[in-house]
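Cross-check.
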Amino acid sequence: MSINRRMFLQGGAFLGAGLSLSGCTPIIKLTQSADYEYTLTLEAAPFELIPNTQTPGLGFNGQYPSPVLRGKQGRPITITVVNKLDQPTTIHWHGIRIDIAMDGVPFLSQMPIMPGQSFVYKFTPPDAGTFWYHPHVNSVEQLGKGLVGLLIVDEADSSEFSPNEFSADIPLMIKNWHLNDDGSFKPLSIPRYAARMGTPGNYETINGVNKPTIDVPANSWIRLRFANVDNTLVYTLRVKDHPAFLASIDANPLPEPKPFKQHAIGAGMRFDLIIKTPSVGESIVVENGKGRIFFEFLTLKSVATKSTTPTNAPMPRLPLNPLPEPDLDTAETLKFVFEWEGAITPADDQGKAKHKFWTINRRAWEGMSHNKIPAPLAKLTLGKTYIFDLKNNTPHHHPIHIHGVMFKVLKSTKKKIDPFFTDTVLMEKNERVKIAFVADNPGRWMYHCHVIEHMKTGLMGYIEIS
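Predicted model, tokenized:
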């Protein structure tokens, strides 16, 4: 089936009628069968991000925004990935509790997909929610130039919940591009920034558009899926002067939706909001905070649809995912300290700088190859509960992500925590956080900061569950 920009906004499964995004409407080509089978190509392609310019990007199926892949909880999904780039690649399915052979980390779980080759990913998502996909090779460039996309897993059939309870289900993919005025790329990474917060972009987009206005059906419940697919930035979002409810964090529904004030998401993180839209002609403004000042980021405009009538339906409640509860009484505690390594820049045997700025337990990630896999940061016993005591000894934010598991955030030295499950925890400067999980998924799982430059300059390792 073909998907245009309008259908993108509903994630390929529009539940209302006649909604749109202001601005251009490029065609996104996507092949999907009723059996959740897809084909994705990775290729160089021009994008129109800044109006009337062309950006020489890298795109899934040659497009940006990338296709929204849709699966269903408990149903197999097959995705054939074809590499038309001039460099190796893989695809990681961020947040999915997956078989290690499908995790998409080069050498650790699969060989890189070389130019001209293809690889078939097959897995059955155990959880429903908002996930995303991206390469795990040459990540600064491949993600920075556009190879990021959303994977939405719909809830399993149930008499207690139906996606049709929402009149619209809208994915919102946030990315800040490094662009000159003519649409060409600025440097994606500058060492002095990589050693600090990361190199920020200068052109913010949601679904490829700066400050978009999105039509939504009036007087009804809608689901907004925010996903930060940026290489670097933390976004602090709030809804201005309109009630909203936080329903899910990183694909994990909360037991009860919470009144939404504001929420910070680092690179790789997601959250879902539930909103009751206002009457026809009224708007909702979503703002992004920069320091203490908030700026307009996204506008939702209520419009009439064929079914526009005031509704008194109760707020939809998302079903919980089937996650194992950590046994804290028997848990083993492991400590991990994230630190800045210093200003000394090592070089390779050709004299080229190899920047390493960050460490986990005083180890900077040294890279790996087919014949050289570094030792894990920790070896865990299958089926056992672990508490990870995380300490950020730096003055910068770090969104810490672990592949293959969902962990429970227990406590923090910086903020009050109502324990919740997630796959990425945003650590503030000098913050200490405790997380816990059941090591129930065997494999070698990457464990890293999702600020891509931090990951590429040392702040990465892996844990081994066996």
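The helical segments are 5-9, 139-144, 191-194, 452-456. The mean pLDDT is 90. Passed to J.P. for a second look.
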